[in-house]
C-alpha cells in the first residue's frame, strides 16, 4: 500500500502498469462465438434479418417478458426510429443528466428537447418537475434508467397517460434489471437498450427496442429496413437500422454469460462498498432492495466540503495511477452544443443537475477488474482524500 509520498500525482510511480477502464468490454466464450461466426460465413448470410438476429430477438423477448424485441445496429438509431414511430414532434421532456445521444435523437429530427432537472437522490428525471414543463407543443416524455436503477416509472407514466403524451424509456444502462419484479423493457410505450462495447452486455455495436405494442413494433420493423414490407415492396419511409449477423452472434454468446457477468459486477460493487465505507464525503450510489440489478456501474458522489477535495482533483489523481475513472455525464447535455447556444439560461432551471455533474465519478469494474485491484483503488482514494491539501497544491 502506498503512503502519501508514493502517490503518482505527487511524483510517485503509478499503482497500475496497465490502465483500468470503466467499460472495458466483457468477452464470453471465444470458441462458441467463433463457431457462430464460421456458421455465418458458411451460410453467407451476413445481414438482413438472418438466423442469428432472429434467434437473438426471440431470446431477448423471453428474457424480458415482452411481445416484441427488435434488434438494432445501435441504441442511438433505435431511439431515433422509435421516436419517429411514436409520432413525437414539437417538444419532448428529457433529463439533461444523460448521455448526449438522448437529446440528439430528438434534435436530429427537429424535435426540441426540453431539459428537466433530476432528483438528487436517484439521479433520474424528477417527475415533480415534469408537469410544469408541459406546453401545447409537448408530445412525449423520455425517462432514463441511470446506473441500472429504474427511474420513477409509475409517476412518469401517470403524467404521460393523463396528459396524452408518449412515454419512452431510455434503458441503455438497464439491460437485465427489473422493477417491482417485472423486467425493464416492458414499461411505457417502448424501451430502448444499448449493447455497445462498453456496456456489460455487448454485441460489439448494437441495441434493441422492446415493446408490447403490436402496431408500434410493426412500424419499427418497417422503419429499420427502409420501409420494406416484402420483396421490392416499400410501404413506409425508413432508414437502415438493422443489426448484422456478426453482432447478433456476439449477443447470443454474451447471453450465455449474462449471469456470470452480473455476478462479477455484483462482487466488484460489494468490494467497493466495503473499501469505501465510512470515507467522509464519499457516497456510493446505493443498489438496494429486491429488484434485479446488473451492477454495471460503480458510481460515487464526492462532496468537496466533507471530502476536502474536489471531484476533479480526485479524478486527476486516479488517472495518474492509471485508474481511468469517468465523469458521467459532465458537463450536462444543456452545456453541450447545440443546446448551450439554444438554451443559454437552462442551467438556472437545473440546479440539481448543475451540482451533480460536479460530484459524480464512475469507477472501473467488469471482468477486467479484480477484487485485489478494487482494494488498491479504494486505498488510493482514501490516501488521496487524506492528502487533499497536498494534491490540490500540486494541481494548482
Automatic annotation (TrEMBL):
GO terms for biological process: polysaccharide biosynthetic process. CDD domains: AHBA_syn (cd00616). Keywords: Aminotransferase, Pyridoxal phosphate, Transferase. GO terms for molecular function: pyridoxal phosphate binding; transaminase activity. It holds the Pfam family DegT_DnrJ_EryC1. The active site is at residue 199. The modification N6-(pyridoxal phosphate)lysine is found at residue 199. PANTHER family: PROTEIN RV3402C (PTHR30244:SF9), TRANSAMINASE (PTHR30244). Belongs to the DegT/DnrJ/EryC1 family. This is dTDP-4-dehydro-6-deoxyglucose aminotransferase. It comes from Geobacter hydrogenophilus.
Amino acid at each position: 500500500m502506498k503512503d502519501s509520498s508514493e502517490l503518482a500525482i505527487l511524483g510517485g510511480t503509478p499503482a497500475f502498469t496497465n490502465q483500468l477502464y470503466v467499460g472495458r468490454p466483457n468477452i464470453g466464450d471465444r470458441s462458441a462465438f467463433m463457431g457462430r461466426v464460421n456458421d455465418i460465413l458458411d451460410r453467407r448470410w451476413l445481414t438482413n434479418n438472418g438466423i442469428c438476429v432472429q434467434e437473438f430477438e426471440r431470446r431477448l423477448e423471453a428474457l424480458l417478458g415482452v411481445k416484441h424485441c427488435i434488434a438494432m445496429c445501435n441504441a442511438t438509431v433505435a431511439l431515433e426510429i422509435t421516436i419517429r414511430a411514436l409520432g413525437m414532434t414539437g417538444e419532448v421532456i428529457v433529463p439533461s443528466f444523460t448521455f448526449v445521444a438522448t437529446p440528439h435523437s430528438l434534435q436530429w429530427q427537429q424535435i426540441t428537447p426540453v431539459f428537466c432537472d433530476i432528483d438528487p437522490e436517484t439521479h433520474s428525471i424528477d417527475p415533480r418537475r415534469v408537469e410544469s414543463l408541459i406546453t401545447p407543443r409537448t408530445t412525449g416524455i423520455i425517462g432514463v434508467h441511470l446506473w441500472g436503477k429504474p427511474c420513477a416509472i409509475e409517476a412518469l407514466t401517470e403524467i404521460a397517460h393523463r396528459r396524452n403524451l408518449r412515454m419512452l424509456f431510455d434503458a441503455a444502462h438497464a439491460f437485465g434489471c427489473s422493477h417491482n419484479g417485472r423486467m425493464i423493457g416492458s414499461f411505457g410505450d417502448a424501451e430502448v437498450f444499448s449493447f455497445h462495447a462498453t456496456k456489460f452486455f455487448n454485441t460489439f455495436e448494437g441495441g434493441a427496442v422492446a415493446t408490447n405494442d403490436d402496431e408500434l413494433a410493426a412500424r419499427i420493423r418497417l422503419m429499420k429496413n427502409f420501409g420494406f414490407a416484402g420483396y421490392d415492396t416499400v410501404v413506409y419511409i425508413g432508414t437502415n437500422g438493422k443489426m448484422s449477423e456478426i453482432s447478433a452472434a456476439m449477443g447470443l454468446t454474451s447471453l450465455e454469460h449474462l449471469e456470470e457477468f452480473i455476478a462479477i459486477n455484483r462482487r466488484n460493487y460489494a468490494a467497493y462498498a466495503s473499501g469505501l465505507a465510512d470515507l467522509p464525503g464519499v457516497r456510493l450510489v446505493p443498489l438496494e432492495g429486491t429488484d434485479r440489478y446488473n451492477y454495471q456501474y460503480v458510481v460515487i458522489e464526492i462532496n468537496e466540503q466533507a471530502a476536502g477535495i474536489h471531484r476533479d482533483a480526485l479524478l486527476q489523481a486516479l488517472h495518474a495511477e492509471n485508474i481511468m475513472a469517468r465523469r458521467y455525464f459532465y458537463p450536462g447535455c444543456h452545456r453541450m452544443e447545440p443546446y448551450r447556444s439554444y438554451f443559454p439560461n437552462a442551467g438556472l432551471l437545473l440546479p440539481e443537475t448543475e451540482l451533480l455533474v460536479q460530484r459524480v465519478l464512475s469507477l472501473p469494474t467488469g471482468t477486467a477488474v479484480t477484487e485485489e485491484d478494487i482494494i488498491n483503488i479504494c486505498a488510493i482514494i482514501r490516501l488521496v482524500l487524506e492528502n487533499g491539501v497536498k494534491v490540490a497544491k500540486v494541481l494548482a
